[in-house]
TrEMBL record:
Record-linked Gene3D superfamilies: P-loop containing nucleotide triphosphate hydrolases
One CC-aspect GO term: plasma membrane
CDD domains given in the database record: ABC_Mj1267_LivG_branched
SMART domains from the UniProt entry: AAA
Organism of this sequence: Parasphaerochaeta coccoides (strain ATCC BAA-1237 / DSM 17374 / SPN1)
Family annotation (SUPFAM superfamilies): P-loop containing nucleoside triphosphate hydrolases
Molecular function terms, GO-annotated: ATP binding; ATP hydrolysis activity; L-isoleucine transmembrane transporter activity; L-phenylalanine transmembrane transporter activity; L-valine transmembrane transporter activity
Protein name in the entry: Amino acid/amide ABC transporter ATP-binding protein 1, HAAT family
């Protein structure tokens, strides 16, 4: 079952077509890679799927619903979450507080209930703490809940960022270069972690990544962009053999 697809999704910035006629489909619980050289249009594709930009032409569908151009918060509420290339944590907050803030959008209590602290709000708040702790346990950060977010080692900050995205209770998770800046040990752990996330949270995952070992190990299917155009789509072994891909991208990478 296709859970998300784009239909000839395109965007122009002035004279530059950053993404042209992208037809990408995610099947339920698939892990799919989106790769390509710098400036190929990968993050821009994420930005259109998550409502940061509206496509200039074409559309994004979540199930049967056309979500093109909806606001990012609306799209997040519909179950699409993302992480960013540069880690975006609340630097001075603890690990637990970072999760609590992210889960806030799922609160049902009214402003009035929270301001006068009605029992219903207390119940919901307690539930929020329980959920945040369950999430931290699931991503292996339980013992660090009181640490300042930025005091964590890099790999753990990435995990926390992913946990923050999960706090919005998504069904689809978009990861933008999660292995960026990681050492080989951390990126091996990340590969396993992404696989576990799908199982634990029943997620469909779309992954932008330059680290080819991570992509080839974790993705079941891969789309390759170059100058905004889709130059290949297929299984990892097909992509590795594809001449156009090798020429455009893999050939220039020493970690391919
Ligand atoms: N808001 C914008 N205004 C103008 N040009 C933009 C804007 N956003 C992206 N671009 C351009 O669109 C193209 C695609 O950029 P994008 O960031 O999507 O590439 P990418 O594949 O994610 O690259 P990288 O791997 O380096 O992150 C680039 O030429 C970029 O300069």
């Amino acid at each position: 079952m296709t859970v998300l697809h784009t239909q000839n999704m395109s965007i122009c910035f002035g004279g530059l077509t950053a993404v042209m006629n992208l037809n990408l489909a995610l099947e339920d619980k698939e892990i799919v890679g989106l790769i390509g050289p710098n400036g190929a249009g990968k993050t821009t594709a994420f930005n259109m799927i998550t409502g940061v930009y509206a496509p200039t032409s074409g559309a994004v569908f979540l199930g049967d619903r056309n979500i093109s151009g909806l606001r990012p918060d609306v799209i997040s509420n519909l179950g699409i979450a993302r992480t960013f290339q540069n880690i975006r944590l609340f630097r001075d907050m603890s690990v637990l507080e970072n999760i609590l803030v992210a889960g806030h959008q799922r609160l049902k209590s009214s402003l009035f209930a929270s301001v006068v602290r009605l029992p219903s709000y207390h119940r919901e708040e307690r539930h929020m703490f329980e959920k945040a702790r369950t999430l931290l346990e699931a991503v292996g950060l339980s013992d660090l809940e009181d640490e300042k977010a930025t005091s964590l080692p890099y790999g753990k900050q990435r995990r926390l960022e992913i946990a923050r995205a999960l706090a919005t209770e998504p069904s689809i998770l978009l990861l933008d270069e999660p292995a960026a800046g990681m050492n080989p040990q951390e990126s091996r752990e990340l590969t396993d972690f992404i696989g576990q996330l799908r199982e634990k949270f029943g997620l469909t995952i779309l992954l932008i990544e330059h680290h080819m070992q991570v992509v080839m190990r974790v993705c079941e299917r891969i789309y390759v962009l170059d100058y905004g155009q889709t130059i290949a789509e297929g299984k990892p072994e097909e992509i590795q053999r594809n001449e156009r891909v090798i020429e455009a991208y893999l050939g220039g990478q020493d970690n391919a």
